[in-house]
Every structure is written in structure tokens, then in C-alpha cells.
Amino acid sequence: MVREWDPGTASAAEIEAVLRALNEIVAFDVPEDPPWRDVKFREYLAVTMPGERRTSWLAVDESGEVLGHASLLALEEIGVLELSVRPAARRGHVGTALLAAVARRAAEEGFESVGVEVIGGTPSIKFFESFGFECAFIEQRNLLDLGGVDWLRLGEMAAGIGAGYRVEYHPGGPPEQHYAAYAAAKEAARAAVAADLELRPSSYDAERLRASLATLHARGLKPYIVLAVHEASDTIAGLTEVVVPAQRPTRADQYDTIEVPAHRGYGISRAIKARMLFELRAAEPHLLDVQTWNATENEPLLKVNAELGFKPDREWREYDADVVDLLRRLK
Ligand SMILES: CC(C)(COP(=O)(O)OP(=O)(O)OC[C@H]1O[C@@H](n2cnc3c(N)ncnc32)[C@H](O)[C@@H]1OP(=O)(O)O)[C@@H](O)C(=O)NCCC(=O)NCCS
Fold first, then answer.
1. What does DSSP say about strands 165-171 and 221-230: parallel, antiparallel, or unpaired?
2. Is 330 in the pocket of ligand 1 (CB under 6 A)?
3. Do both 125 and 260 map to the same domain?
4. Where is the N-acetyltransferase domain positioned along the sequence (predicted)?
5. Are residues 171 and 127 in the same domain?
6. Which of 24, 90, 317 has most ligand 1 atoms within 8 Å of its beta carbon, as the pocket-test mutant?
7. Whole-number Å distance between alpha carbons of 327 and 130
8. For residue range 98-112, what is the model confidence (pLDDT) as tens digits?
9. Could you tell me the distance, in angstroms and rounded to a whole number, from the CA of residue 128 to the centre of ligand 1?
10. DSSP state, residue 197
11. Is 23's C-beta closer than 6 angstroms to any atom of ligand 1?
12. CA separation (Å) from 245 to 14, 76, 115, 204, 240?
């Protein structure tokens, strides 16, 4: 049975059951990944950016036990779905029933298409392809084991930035006076990678950035920022963002690293990413590794990541499907 579910008001027992199911799935599909903890897990599921909506569903058996979970995040142009079924309940069409609930809602909300991020080497690939989803974009997840970092060499990288630039560290988010420039740098970089499906909310102006930082904090995701400031013009020349989730504090997520085009060629990306690792080591004692996602064509960043010690891990794919076509296949 599939029913709509609100994690914001659900009982603590249900939140725990969903967490247990998620950890079974992680252990089965991506056993190298750390399990999730019951810290701000409700908030992680329930909170969205202002103006965005996430609808969730649970699949349960006759005794009420959770078998699977799905959600649909309504972004401006696309509905983004997440779907997972406990290993012991697979191949019994639980995933199909959850997908049907998601697809019906996406149609009701007027979405033409839905997108999903799928981890390479998991059964999700065959599942979504069997419903006509097409792969639109491929990224590589890369992993840096902090235990293997050569900190002496990293110190040289952190110092190796052109003259006239200052590096600043801002735990919690960039300072207010830089919001507009920060958002502009992010928007310019986003527009430059037009190929992906934009399945994650973006921060294209100062207001959105403010809302996005508040949302991160409310979901238990702590942002760390390192900036390169061009001293003569007092503008942002580069930025790098890492988030440490309260739910999974041993693994940090590297978000954007951006070099503003006018400031390329001064070693900015390498220096700010290296500095970030020093700051993380000091601020997050539980941290074991950092994961990041890169498009295979982003060669400059791949080179910097390789120098820092990131190693390719798994492929992550973005799939999308036309909603009308999907509903037809689900009948
Ligand atoms: C993808 C997933 C949701 C499918 O759930 P499910 O309940 O097993 O799917 P269904 O039984 O509804 O399968 C529907 C169709 O998908 C295809 N399919 C599903 N799993 C498949 C597999 N392992 N191999 C081949 N085809 C598969 C089949 O065509 C199947 O139809 P059939 O059984 O009639 O042949 C489930 O495997 C899952 O949760 N995967 C992991 C999710 C994830 O992202 N994990 C990692 C991050 S936490």
C-alpha cells in the first residue's frame, strides 16, 4: 500500500523506520558509504527552500512496516523524484507503485518531465530505464580519503595563489557584504554548464542565496566557505563550498568550486580547495572523507581534484522522462 506521508508531522517511530530502511538500502547498494544517523533526519526530509514543495510517500505492508519511500520535489521547471525500496521487498513492484504515485502527482502539478539522480552500479538504472527514463547527464563521484592526504604538500598548494589575492575562510556561509557577488559568480558558473538537468535548487541572487543558506542550516547541513578575494577591486575571484551533514558527519560533500573567468590562471581553485581541507580537518573532528561530483568534461577541475588526492569512485547519472509517456507506461 502506498500512502502520502508528511515527515514534518510523522511520529518519531515512523521517522526511525524510514531511517532504518535507508540504512539497509545504503548497506546493500553502496556499502562503501557511511550509514545515516538519527540527527535532524526529520528536518532533512521535511524542510525545503521557500517556494518549493516536497511531497513524500511511504509504501507499507499489511502490518504497517515500511517497505519503501518516495518523494517529489517541485522545482521551477522540473519535478525531481527520489525512490527507494528495502532490499528484502524488491522485485515485488513496490517501486512501481511508488513511481506511479509520484508520476500522477507530477502530472497534477503540471510538470512535463521528471528527473532523477541514479547511482551507477545499482538496480535503479534498470528500473528507471524499464520505464523509459533516458540518461541526460553523467557525472563522476570522486572521493578524497583525509587519512591519505599529504598535508605538507597540501600546505604548499594552499599558499600557491597569485599575488593580489586574499583567501578567506567563512564557516556557516559567506559574509553578507559578499552575497550579491557570490550569487553572481554561482549563476555565471551554472549558466556555463547548461548540459545538466538542474535537479538541485540554485542560488542565482542574494535573496535566493540567503534562503538557501537558511535552508541548509535548517536541514542540518553545515556549510563551509573559502573565498579568494581580489584585493584591488575587493571582489570575489573564486569560491569553494563544502557541506557537512549532521546525519553523516564522517563524509563531507564538496559543492561548487568556482573561478570567476577574469581571474583564471592564478592558482585560485587549487589554493582555496587546499585551504578548505585544512579548515575542515580542524573544524570537523569526525570527518573521514570528502565526496564531490564532476562532469567528465570539466577537465581543469578534475586535474585540481586529482592533485589534491581525489579518486574516481562511482558514476552518477541524471535521468529524465516525459510525464505523459511515463503514465502511459505505468498503466
Ligand atoms: C530501483 C528500486 C526502487 C526498484 O524497486 P523494486 O520494488 O524492486 O522495483 P519493481 O519490482 O517495481 O520493478 C519494476 C521493474 O523494474 C525493473 N527492475 C527492477 N529492479 C531490477 C533489477 N535489479 N534488475 C533488472 N531489472 C530490474 C524490472 O523491469 C521490473 O519489472 P519486473 O519485475 O516485472 O521485471 C530499488 O531497487 C531500489 O530502491 N534501489 C536502490 C535505490 C538507491 O538509489 N539506492 C542507493 C541510494 S540510498
1. antiparallel
2. no
3. no
4. 13-156, 183-331
5. no
6. 90
7. 13
8. 999 999 999 999 999
9. 8
10. -
11. no
12. 21, 25, 24, 23, 17
Ligand 1, closest atom to CA 92? 11
- Polymer length in residues for the chain: 331
93 and 6 in one domain? yes
**Number of domains the chain contains:** 2
Q: Which residue CA neighbors atom 36 of ligand 1 most closely?
A: 85
pLDDT 10s digits, 122-157: 999 999 999 999 999 999 999 999 999 999 999 999
Contact 256, 239 (CB under 8 A): yes
| CB of residue 26 inside a 6 A radius of ligand 1 | yes
pLDDT of residue 67: 98
Least confident of 137-146, 182-191, 242-251, 255-264: 182-191
Residues 32 and 74 both lie in one domain: yes
Q: Whose CA is nearest to atom 48 of ligand 1?
A: 26
Does residue 222 lie in a domain region? yes
By the 8 A CB rule, do 271 and 161 touch?
Answer: yes
Q: Which residues are CB-contacts of 67 (< 8 A; sequence separation ≥ 6)?
A: 21, 59, 60, 61, 85, 86, 89, 94
Average pLDDT over residues 285-313: 89
Which of 83, 91, 94 gets mutated to test ligand 1 (max ligand atoms within 8 A of its CB)?
91
